[in-house]
Specification:
Number of helices: 12
Structural class: alpha/beta
Strand order of the largest sheet: 3-2-1-4-5-6-10
Pfam families: Epimerase
Helix content: 25-40%
Oligomer: single chain
Number of strands: 11
Organism: Streptomyces sp. Y1
Largest sheet: 7 strands, parallel
Protein name: NAD-dependent epimerase/dehydratase family protein
Strand content: 15-25%
Shape: globular
Radius of gyration: 19 Å
Domain NAD-dependent epimerase/dehydratase: 5-208
InterPro entries: Epimerase_deHydtase (IPR001509), NAD(P)-bd_dom_sf (IPR036291)
Order of helices and strands: EHEEHEHEHEEHEEHEHEHHHHH
Length: 312
């Protein structure tokens, strides 16, 4: 077994650290706020933009799993420093840099997204995310580091709370049969990446030299609309069918005056206005991990939210 450094302890970082520890690896998690130690998992407090501190934390690591991201309003200003620090730590330690990415970098596209699409985003967040990977890839191609990026669509599942579109703003209401409001067209096909599948992909590519030097899409179930996902959740929960409404652009703009998160979502609204479908066939042809069946995703998600909502 080996030592892995996980940067960030949001939903993806927590799931990845837990999976690696369950597989017998030694895991160190670095965050700015710290955390509670668990079997096989150590928590260290540091700012990942501090290259010297991050390099010291990564000493002896087989892989650095980059699961951290600045707050959405600061992506344009904070991603460059974070990306440089991650690459410095990877170069000095010799660890493989495994970056968790998303689909922002492609910008608006027509048709299913594949990894060979150009990173043509025009928005601040999309450009920042693309630049972080391009910096790492350039160093990989120069032989200075070993890097790979794993890209996911919108997270869904146990552990996904305030940051998910099918999470805290929707699932508790659906469990009670109450109406929900979603960003964009509720009937547009959309790829929802199940959080445990993200962790499995990050762990798998870290140990596969053939994966390094390019980006891969996390195995993700076939696209389903927000309305269909809501129906699956209420059916699993034996709840009353819930009305799924569209949040109009005008209301989004108005809400953005008071909510920083909603204000930032205006840039990526296109992802919900029409089909937003991720093709993960390249990963499935090369590796063993597969998307969890949707029925299992829904059952686990409903169970997790019910337990969470019962807590004092």
């Amino acid at each position: 077994m080996s030592f892995h450094l996980v940067v960030g302890h949001g939903p993806a970082g927590a799931a990845t650290a837990r999976l690696l520890a369950e597989r017998g690896h030694e895991v160190r998690v670095v965050t700015r706020s710290g955390g509670t130690a668990a079997p096989g998992v150590e928590h260290v407090v540091l700012d990942a933009r501090d290259a010297r501190a991050l390099t010291e934390a990564a000493r002896g690591a087989a892989a650095i799993h980059s699961c951290a991201a600045p707050p959405l309003p600061q992506w344009g200003t904070q991603w460059p420093a974070l990306a440089r620090s991650l690459c410095t730590a990877a170069e000095t330690s010799g660890a493989v840099l495994v970056m968790l990415g998303n689909l922002y970098g492609y910008g608006p596209v027509t048709g299913p997204m594949t990894e060979d699409l150009p990173l043509a985003a025009t928005g601040t967040k999309g450009r920042a995310r693309a630049a972080a990977w391009q910096h790492a890839l350039a160093l990989h191609e120069a032989g200075r580091i070993r890097a790979v990026e794993v890209r996911a669509s919108d997270f869904f599942g146990p552990g996904v709370t305030t940051g998910g579109h099918l999470a805290a703003r929707a699932v508790p209401r659906l469990l009670g049969g109450r109406a929900v409001t979603v960003l964009g067209d509720p009937d547009a096909p959309h790829s929802w990446t199940y959080l445990p599948d993200v962790a499995r992909a990050l762990a798998e590519v870290a140990s596969e030299p053939g994966a390094w030097g390019r980006a891969w899409h996390v195995p993700t179930a076939p696209a389903r609309s927000a309305r269909h996902m809501a129906e699956l959740i209420t059916t699993e929960a034996n709840a009353e069918p819930a009305t799924v409404r569209r949040l109009s652009p005008a209301l989004l703009n108005a809400a953005g005056l008071f909510s920083p998160l909603l204000r930032e979502l205006r840039e990526v609204r296109y992802q919900f206005e029409g089909p937003f479908v991720m093709d993960c066939s390249a990963y499935e042809a090369a590796f063993t991990a597969r998307a969890t069946p949707v029925t299992e995703q829904i059952t686990a998600t409903v169970t997790w939210w019910r337990e969470r909502l019962r807590r004092p």
